[in-house]
From TrEMBL, chain A:
Annotated protein name in UniProt: Proteasome subunit beta
Family membership: Belongs to the peptidase T1B family.
Keyword terms: Cytoplasm, Nucleus, Proteasome
GO cellular component: cytoplasm; nucleus; proteasome core complex, beta-subunit complex
Subcellular location(s) per record: Cytoplasm; Nucleus
Record note on quaternary structure: The 26S proteasome consists of a 20S proteasome core and two 19S regulatory subunits. The 20S proteasome core is composed of 28 subunits that are arranged in four stacked rings, resulting in a barrel-shaped structure. The two end rings are each formed by seven alpha subunits, and the two central rings are each formed by seven beta subunits. The catalytic chamber with the active sites is on the inside of the barrel.
Record-level GO BP terms: proteolysis involved in protein catabolic process
UniProtKB/TrEMBL annotation, chain B:
Listed name of the protein: Proteasome subunit alpha type
UniProt similarity note: Belongs to the peptidase T1A family.
Keyword Nucleus in annotation: yes
Source organism superkingdom: Eukaryota
Amino acid sequence: MELQLSMVDGSVCMKDSAKSEISSERTLYPYVTGTSIIGMKYKDGVILASDTAGSYGSTLRYKSVERIKQVGDHTLIGASGEISDFQEIMRYLDELILYDKMWDDGNSLGPKEVHNYLNRIMYNRRNKFNPLWNSLVLGGVKKGQKYLGTVNMIGTHYEDDHLATGFGNHLARPILRSEWREDLTFEEAVKLIEKCLLVLLYRDRSSINKFQIAKITDEGTTIFPPYALKTFWGFSHFQNPSKGAAGTW
Amino acid sequence: MFRNQYDTDVTTWSPAGRLFQVEYAMEAVKQGSAAVGLRSKTHAVLGAVNKAASDLASHQRKLFRADQHVGVAIAGLTADGRVLSRFLRNECINHSFVYESPLPVSRLVVQLADKAQVCTQRSWKRPFGVGLLVAGLDETGAHLYYNCPSGNYFEYQAFAIGSRSQAAKTFLERRFQEYDTYSREDLIKDALFAIKETLQGEKLTAQLCTVAIVGEGEAFHIIDQQTIQEYIDAMELSTGGPDEEAAAAAPPSAEAQEGGEGASSEPAPMDI
């Protein structure tokens, strides 16, 4: 609720922020969006993967968007949904980590704390009917403890051994449920992730063939440069697609 | 300490660069009944002397839990101590709510110290008249801090505050070097011994004192009277006598209308 000076009689009155004229409007729909994020724990730490696409509705507008970022020494965050809201979230988190570093006292915020802080922000925005239109995956390692959690625009949050957002929930999670193991090496984990990324590339129209993988262990964080996967479109069904209906496209 | 023309306001400096009101507030801590604290790498113990005003009355609470991992012992104006304990509890629970993680003790004491400092720089406020021994555990180990009315805070291996605390400090000074590796039982025993030192000859019983502990795998809690009595019996204490001289080393105050400390076992008036 905000106190506002009413123009009519000059008195101070209470106005519901959901129908505010003077301040900015609340979020109604997203504009530039990122698609799925996949995250999973492996033997030494946590891996996050995504493509680097920023869609503008049905147009694949931006092709080099970094949707996975580092937060402090112990955490990685990957975002799907509105890219500008992700940039806002990064501002909040960078400020949080800065103030934490300024204490300079041997204590530091780990992935669990960052996740909870973010959850508070997301849920509070949702309650004001002005959400940050994202689904986020947070992964990290602190003192040998691996952490992987997710939080989204309505404030739903949970942890698991492997997570995904958006289409990844439907296409990648089933693969991970059957093939994920606690003791995957980094190479095995990347192979498994690539299997998921490939399925998403084939079946998610907002994805592109340019991926980024990031890993975090007790030693530190690495965000690898983008690369492409080999795809195969030579299925007999795709040859001569208009055979059955001449003149179509 | 005598009255002078610079001691009316907390916002008035003396020519020597002193804030007398703050120093008088620290005097209030010295008049309160004793509290001791000691820590190892993994545990921290707090102890306090509880003297009731009369046999009819119950004693003042001096030990407060701020969170699962932090607690305080107070000496001085108990009412001020209660208010600050409420503040500590609030800060701890706010942090837990936002970060789902215990507030590191070093950050808690800084927030407490900043709150105390505000009262030394506002003409319409007065400093808190209570000293706090903050004992807690976080990811960097067990910690013991002392927060002054002045807004200063210090970390200690072992410390004692309140009346006749010098006797306890003398005892702790002889022993503190080993404390890092002490077991929790030995810490409790030393805390009880330190409390006994402040009693000046009076027999130590579990009714007279309160002891609390926090450590790895152990949330902050006050140890029950029966266990304390067992510790005391095991230490085979009867009427041991600490130094009379050490106790009398506390600075006498000229305007001590409250009644001097002396050798009487009456509780310090400010505690009531």
